[in-house]
Design goal:
With 108 residues, the chain is of the alpha+beta class. Helix content is 50%, strand content 13%. The chain is built from five helices and two strands. A hairpin with a 7-residue loop joins strand 1 and strand 2. 6% of the residues are buried.
Amino acid sequence: MPSGWKFSVEYLFPPCYALTMEITVHLPDDLSQHANPGREALESLVIEGYRTGALSSFQASQLLGISRMEFDGFLKKRQIYDHAYGVEDFDEDRETLHQLQAEGLLRA
């Protein structure tokens, strides 16, 4: 790709959002030679946003255009275990389930 090559990433928010945003990034020649520099840049942005807590797993998966479960696989493939779903998360979810069932909001 020629020097100063630009790529654009357009993210269309889910229907519940009224905004769209286009981001343009100028890449140096060495990076613009990669097979898919736009995707690499987006993935790096998402990973860093997720690691720092700036993005939730839902937001990160939406930016990548994949499901929440696919996002878990995306992280695992890259050996990223920050904020991984653990035993404490499971216990909290189980407690929430029991509370909802006790309140009659979910069937047992």
